[in-house]
Structure formats: C-alpha cells, structure tokens
Amino acid sequence: MRLVVLGGGESGVGTAILGKKKGYDVFVSDFGKIKEKYKQVLIDNEILWEDEKHTEDLVLNADVVMKSPGIPDKAPIIKKLHEKGISVISEIEFAAPFTKAVTIGITGSNGKTTTTMLTYHLLKSAGLNVGLGGNIGKSFAWQVADEEYDFYVLELSSFQLDGIVDYKPHIAVITNISPDHLDRYDYKYENYIAAKFRITMNQTEDDYLIYDADDEAIANWLQNNKTKAKLIPFSLSQTFEQGAFILNNNMEVRINQDEFKMETREIALEGKHNTKNAMASSSAANILNIRKSTIRESMSNFQGVEHRLEKVLKIQNVQYINDSKATNVNAVFFALDSMTTPTVWIVGGVDKGNDYNELMPLVREKVKAIVCLGVDNKKIIDAFGNVVDMMVEVTTMRDAVIMSQRLTERGDTVLLSPACASFDLFESYEDRGNQFKRAVQNL
Predict the structure, then answer these.
(1) 272 partner at 20 to 30 Å CA-CA among 68, 93, 241, 304?
(2) What distance lies between CA 349 and its chain's CA centroid?
(3) Is 111 annotated as a binding residue?
(4) Phi and psi for 38 in degrees, rounded to 5?
(5) pLDDT of 317-329, one tens digit each?
(6) Rounded to whole angstroms, how far apart are CA atoms 309 and 386?
(7) To 10 degrees, what angle do helices 329-337 and 272-287 make?
(8) Dist CA 133 CA 329 (whole Å)
(9) How is residue 59 annotated by DSSP?
(10) Is position 368 annotated in a ligand binding site?
(11) Which residues is 254 bridged to in the sheet?
(12) Using an 8 Å Cβ cutoff, are 286 and 260 in contact?
C-alpha cells in the first residue's frame, strides 16, 4: 500500500512514521519548505521526501493520501487526487484504527485549546494513562506509533474533521461555533458549521456529545439534524436533568444519575467563557467516572493556556495581557467582556472575513485607544475610527507595545487580542504572543 503524505510538518511527519511502522510504502511531499528538524527525522527513518514542489507522478500513484490541515481542498494537487478517486484523509482518520485507546475529541471556534488542556489535566491528575494531541503538541499519529496510551484528548480543528470518514470519538465536545475560517468554506457559514458537526457523525448510542446549549448555531443544527450520541448540554442560563449548569453560584454536572457540584468561585480560570470550558471538561471527567475530589482539585489548580488571556506583567500599575490566540472576533468578544479597567487594545493581522459589529458595544464601553498591528488595517479603522478617542497604526510588535504604554494611565490594561491570523507579520500566533511578551519585558 502506498501512502503519500502532503505536508512535512508535525502531523505529516507523525503520519509518515506511523505509516512506515505499519508497512506502508511512504512518500512525503511539501509544496513549501520542510523544517530542518523534520527533514532529519525523515532521513533518520529512511522515509523518502521532497519539498518546494509536488511531483505529480509520485503523488498521484498513491493508494491513500494524508493531507495536512493547512492545505485547502482548492489546491490543484488535491483537485487532481479527487478527480482520480484517490482517498484523501486527515491524520486523525489515518491513525485512529491503529490504537485501541478511548478518544475524547474537542472542537469549537473558541475555547477548544483551553478545554482540551483542562480535560487532559483532569485525566492525568486522576492517574489515567493519557496522551494529548490533534491540533496541539505532539502529533496523534506519532504518539500512536511510539506510545501505548489508554486515552487521548484530541483538539480537532474543522480542517481535521473535514478529512475523517470512519473516525469517532467516544466523547465529543463542541465548545461553541462562530464564523471563522470562512475563506476555506466558500464564505458559507453553514458549510463551516457542518464541518464542526462531523465530530459526531459516526458516534453511536454508547457515545456522548457534550455541547453549549446557549449557542445558536449548535442549537439550530441539533433541531434540524440527528446524532445517535447521548446529548450532554451545558449552559449558564438553563438547567437540565442531564447536563451541566449553574445554580446558586454552583457549577452542577448531572450525568447518568450521578451529580457533581463545585462553587464557581473555586474554578481557577476566570470569565464566563471559562466557566463553560470548565463545564465541558468536568462533564467529560464525570462520564469517565473520575473521582469528584480529583475533579474539584484539578479545576481549582489549573493554570490556563499560554497566549490565551495570559497575564504577562504589571508595569506602573498597568496590566499587560497576551491573548494572541484570539484569531477571530468571537474570541476577542470574550476577552473584552472580561476586562474590568480602561483598555488599550492591540488588534489586526490577516482578516478571515471578520464582522466587527458585534464588538461595538464592548469597544464603546471598555476601549480607550486602539493600536492597529497589521499590513492592512482599513477594516478596523472603518469600524472603530469614530468610536475610540485614539487610533494608531504600527508595523512591529515593539512599536505596538511602546505606543500602548504611551496611551495608558495607572490602572489601565493593555490587551493584545488580534481578532486575526498572524501570517502577515509573524510566523504564527505563538510567535506573535512571544514577541509581545518580550517587548513588554523590555519596557
């Protein structure tokens, strides 16, 4: 069997290693440059590869193709594979049959990384033999090749779910859905929503779907479509016979005639959106019968996720916050909603079809100045130019931070929450967040 892997990054190289171990004839092809560290791994494992091109003869003779999440379906090589009827799948789909582990799959427009990390923290604290993968950390396929885990907590993007056929998680979580990546879905929101719900398409009556019952897109989908999975809703405003909710300042989780309670003020993560992430994670933990004392302790000592509302430093009584992971409007909504002091907001980057209108009330109420950090800031300036007192444009993170400091007074907050992808000026949202932290430390 010939396995062709398109993309020589973390998921591609992990898939190549697993494929080789399982006896496939493996070839890796990347249209861009493969990083040195990954090239070395391929060479060490005697796996054939090419970069900066796709040699069609070597790709189109595949029995199965694993496509990295970053490659759009519109790419010419993908179109040719589809025309030839060659199966194009994601890393998750390829690797899942090679492990007996129980998987918990977590998707959503926002909150999925925090919910994934928190769920992993809960399971690990309970002493379970658990791996963490998907869109985060070490590739799932690579771990299936090298490790023997009993459980995996997987963060799954819509792109990874686009490439599944038979994969099903035992526990699926959809944190929320808001318009994102619409450039990859023909600018049709319903296509993006359908991609997220692929997480439950193969689930059976023995599986679970945990979801935000306050989310309009999720509620609409569930009214008009069917899943066999047991439904476990969570909500800040409704209560359920089976699900997670807030009652008298307690988070309550009721699943299979069992009940878990915890005071919301004991949850380490702050903000309403994090209360929801906590509900999703503790619902999963309760399904797996993790001890209540372990859940309570894990919830109260969890440190949060880097680049997600991460407090960096307080300088001259001004708090600097790194929320570089906020790459869409909905994530920024959560960030601004949790601000309690006048805020200088650093925003901008590669716009993925953003509509800034929903931020208007929050910007009026909380934001005193905006620093635009992007190559093209026209949309942001048009949206908020008349709403805030001060608006400046910069092209480096250092200038963004220095300018923000000039615009603050004691007691203010500087918030990096870009609402956009980072690829115009930075390598990744991590690179953007790290540059912000360095610039703040150098003030």
Answers:
(1) 241
(2) 18
(3) yes
(4) -75, -35
(5) 999 999 999 998 9
(6) 27
(7) 110
(8) 26
(9) H
(10) no
(11) 243, 259
(12) yes
Q: Summarize the chain as % helix, strand, coil (round to 5).
A: 40, 25, 40
Residue ending a domain, choose from 89, 122, 141: 89
Same structural domain, 276 and 319:
no
| Residue 271 annotated in ligand binding | no
Q: Is the dihedral of CA 265, 268, 270, 274 positive or negative?
A: negative
Total number of domains in the chain: 3
Do 346 and 417 lie in a common domain? yes
CA–CA dist 49, 436 (Å, integer)? 36
112 marked ligand binding residue? yes
Span 384-443, pLDDT tens digits = 999 999 999 999 999 999 999 999 999 999 999 999 988 889 999 999 999 999 999 999
Alpha helices, DSSP H, located in 311-428: 329-337, 360-366, 378-384, 397-407
- Global pTM reads 0.81
Ligand-binding site membership of 110 (annotated): yes
Contact 151, 131 (CB under 8 A): yes
14 is in an annotated binding site: no
User: What are the tokens at 166?
Assistant: 């038979």
Q: Is 340 annotated to bind ligand?
A: no
